[in-house]
From TrEMBL:
Annotated InterPro entries: YbaB-like_sf, YbaB/EbfC
Designated name of the protein: Nucleoid-associated protein YbaB
Transmembrane segments: none
One Pfam match: YbaB_DNA_bd
GO molecular function: DNA binding
Taxonomic path: Bacteria, Bacillati, Actinomycetota, Actinomycetes, Mycobacteriales
UniProt region (Disordered), positions on chain: 118-143
Length: 143
C-alpha cells in the first residue's frame, strides 16, 4: 500500500516533469516568416528574440525606410505566431496541471483524498493568455 505522502510525492514528480516539458517546449519555439514579396524573412523565438534575418534579391529595390518597415512588420508577424504557439502550450499545461491537482491521492489504508479548489485561486480556463493585460478586477494584493 502507499501512504498519502507517497501519493503526494508521485503527483509532485508528475507536476515537475510537466513543468520541465513546458520549459523545454517553450525554449524550442522558433518561427520564421517571409514577407509576401519574398524580400524579407525573419526568425523569432517565443521570447521575442530575433534569431535570423534574411534579405532576398528584391530587397535591394526597396528604399531604406520601406525596407526597415518591412523588416519590422515581418519580425512582428513571426513574434505573434511564436507567442500564439507559446500560449497554446501554456493552455495545455494549465489543463494537465489542473487534472493532476484534481487527481485523488491514495492514503495508507487504500482510501482516497480528493483535493478541492481553494477559494481565491483562479481556474486555468480563466487565466488570460500571456501578452494580454486584463483590466484589474479588484484591489491589488501584495504577496
Amino acid at each position: 500500500m502507499t501512504s498519502l505522502a507517497q501519493s503526494l510525492m508521485a503527483r509532485m514528480k508528475k507536476q515537475r516533469d510537466l513543468m520541465q516539458a513546458l520549459a523545454e517546449h517553450c525554449k524550442s519555439i522558433s518561427v520564421r516568416v517571409t514577407s509576401r514579396d519574398q524580400s524579407v524573412s525573419a526568425e523569432v523565438t517565443a521570447s521575442g528574440e530575433m534569431t535570423g534575418l534574411w534579405l532576398g534579391p528584391s530587397a535591394t529595390r526597396l528604399g531604406a525606410d520601406a525596407l526597415a518597415k518591412l523588416i519590422v512588420e515581418t519580425a512582428q508577424a513571426a513574434s505573434r505566431l511564436a507567442l500564439e504557439r507559446q500560449n497554446f502550450l501554456i493552455k495545455e499545461f494549465n489543463t494537465r496541471m489542473a487534472e493532476l491537482q484534481e487527481t485523488p491521492l491514495t492514503c495508507w489504508d487504500g482510501s482516497t483524498f480528493v483535493p478541492r479548489q481553494l477559494p481565491g485561486i483562479p481556474v486555468p480556463e480563466q487565466d488570460p493568455p500571456i501578452g494580454e493585460n486584463p483590466a484589474p478586477t479588484g484591489p491589488r494584493r501584495r504577496l
